[in-house]
Amino acid sequence: MDPTPVDAVSAADPTFVPTGDDGWQRLAPAARTVRAIAGAVAGAVIAVPLAVVVVTIAAGGGLLWPLLAMPAAVVSGALAGAWIGQARWRRTRWRLDAVGLYVRRGLIWHTEVLVPRSRVQHLDVERGPLERQFGLATLVVHTAGTQTSALRQSGFDEATAVALRDALIPDAARHADAL
What is the CATH classification number for the domain harbouring 99? Predict the structure, then answer.
């Protein structure tokens, strides 16, 4: 089930349990496009040096072979990257409940992360240029521990990311301005 702003707004309640078969939600549909674009760019960039190496090794066939191989390698890399980006979108789910935020990723290397509400130190909502173009945001949940103790999940609708941020604010911080 795709998160909607109505579901996201109800996430501000600390006892919020999303609706659905098992409570797991997909990332925003626009995130599929953004991940495909990012994957295509990364795939094309990675394909260029690989194509140069292959062309250099096989350059005994004259000048025509390198001219045909380079564009084919870049297009193949872009297509593979776009496919991987979309597959990552399909295999990412999230769930918010009374315990905290769960994120499940992957097919071959399956990862499930739980950030308990009690461990949340502070939260950030980031929006890069591509995310702003598609109305998306990245939620960064910083936890107690080292500098790298943070969950960074991109692909949320802006309203969902803000609602999740508000729902995960620790109770002490929520009432800190009342002192």
Answer: 2.30.29
